[in-house]
Structure formats: structure tokens, C-alpha cells
Amino acid sequence: MQQTTTQNHNIRNITINIRAKEQQRDLIDRAAQLLGKNRSDFMLETVCKQAESVLLEQCYFTLAEDNFEKFNQLLDQPPKENSALKKLLNSKSPWE
User: Fold this and answer.
1) How many Å is the Cα radius of gyration of the chain?
2) Is 40 helix (H, G, I), strand (E, B) or coil?
3) 32-65 burial string, b = 16+ CB within 10 Å, else e?
4) Does residue 34 sit in helix, strand or coil?
5) With pLDDT > 70 as the criterion, what percentage of the chain qualifies?
6) Is 90 exposed, middle or buried (0-12, 13-18, 19+ CB in 10 A)?
7) What CA–CA distances, in Å, run from 1 to 5, 8, 9, 11, 28?
8) Per-residue confidence at 77, pLDDT binned at 50, 70, 90?
């Protein structure tokens, strides 16, 4: 019985329809093929990753007034010396 319940969680039961241009469909299909995926799997994975990214960028938090002042003071301080970061920023990108 446990196995049946687990399998039911993997069933896709919602349909999402979108319209696209032929070039867009072909582009998606080429990328999906390169990854060994079908169009649906590729689109769902890609869109879900982007959706998670958008949501994570919108992180909201609250602070008590005194903690907010401390937080702002920390943000206003110049960054500490970071030689590893400086080296990285001064190095050539792999694609250059």
C-alpha cells in the first residue's frame, strides 16, 4: 500500500496550455533534446527553477526598530578586505 501512495505523488494531474511561435517551440525542443528530456519535462523543470528564483529574490523580513538600526549600520560599513574575492574579480572569465 505504501508504494501505491508514493507513486500517486508523482502523477501529473494538471494541464497547462500555452501558445508559442514555431521558432520558440523549435528552440525549446532542441534544448530539451540536448538534455535528453522531452518538451514537457524540460519546460516544467526550467520554469519551476525560474519561479523558485523569482520567489527567493522577494524575501521579506521584519525587524524591531533597534535591530533595524543595527542592520542599517552594518550595511553602511565598508566591506572587509577579501583577497579571494579581489583575485576572482580581477581574473579573466572562462569565456574571455
Assistant:
1) 23
2) helix
3) beeeeeeeeebbeeeeeeeeeeeeeeeeeeeeee
4) helix
5) 91
6) exposed
7) 7, 11, 13, 16, 38
8) very high
C-alpha grid cell for residue 72?
A: 542599517
DSSP structural state of residue 77: S
Residue 87 is classified by DSSP as H
- Quote the pTM value: 0.54
* Cβ 32 vs Cβ 42: under 8 Å: yes
Q: Which of 24-33, 40-49, 87-96 has the lowest mean pLDDT?
A: 87-96
Q: What is the DSSP string of 70-88?
A: HHHHHHHSPPPP-HHHHHH
